[in-house]
Amino acid sequence: MTEILRDILTKYDKDQYAKNTGSQMHKKMRFVNMLNADDEVVQQIESRPDLQIFFTENARCEVPIATTENGKLLSRRIDRMVVDDDNKIVYILDYKTDVDKDAFHANYVAQVQEYITIIKKIYPKYKVYGYILWLHDWTLEKL
Predict the structure, then answer these.
(1) Cα separation, 112 vs 130, whole angstroms
(2) CB 3.0–4.6 Å: which of 34, 82, 96, 134 could bond 91 by disulfide?
(3) Nearest to 131 by CA among 117, 141, 116, 118
(4) CA-to-CA distance for 139 and 97, rounded, in angstroms?
(5) Is 135 helix (H, G, I), strand (E, B) or coil?
(6) What's the structural domain count of the chain?
(7) Strands 89-96 and 127-134
(8) Which backbone phi and psi does 72 adopt, to 5 degrees?
């Protein structure tokens, strides 16, 4: 019984750590374009040309989107989105803090694909590209 309880508490601790880490990183990422941006985050972005498009003046942060599916409202929030009207392209970026990229990878891909589907309804004449930014190692994954 003690071993089962220890396993439950260990899982709970890991889950809480993951939630707290994710919340903290999302807060840091939200303020990247502001004066009080986290120095480490700014340094990572400045050193990565492939990330810079997501952190320009044109980038939107925590973008609410919604559609209806089978008669039900579907509401989501995109971590970062850039609309390039000149080239008719929308870029979507979702942050993930997981260290083990494979653990929920299929779920995360499905999540970004859902965003892409919704954005294509909003911007029907635009190409839409989705990305995952793995914040533990700053890897950018194009879907």
Answers:
(1) 6
(2) 82
(3) 141
(4) 11
(5) coil
(6) 1
(7) parallel
(8) -115, 145
Domain carrying residue 97: 2-142
Task: Dump the DSSP string for 53-120.
Answer: GGGSTTEEEEEEEEEEETTEEEEEEEEEEEEETTTTEEEEEEEE--S-TTTSHHHHHHHHHHHHHHHH
Q: What is the pLDDT of residue 2?
A: 61
Structure tokens at 118: 């919704």
**136 falls in which pLDDT band (50, 70, 90)?**
confident
Domain CATH number, residue 113: 3.90.320.10
| Interacting residues of 93 by C-beta distance below 8 A, sequence separation 6+ | 54, 78, 79, 80, 81, 130, 131, 132, 133
Residue 81: count other Cβ atoms within 10 Å of its Cβ. Answer: 21
Q: Which residues contact 127 (CB under 8 A, 6 or more apart)?
A: 88, 89, 90
- Is residue 17 predicted with pLDDT exceeding 60? no
Span between the terminal Cα atoms of the chain, in Å? 44
Q: 26-44: per-residue pLDDT in tens?
A: 555 555 554 456 777 778 8
Q: Which two tokens stand for residue 126?
A: 């635009």
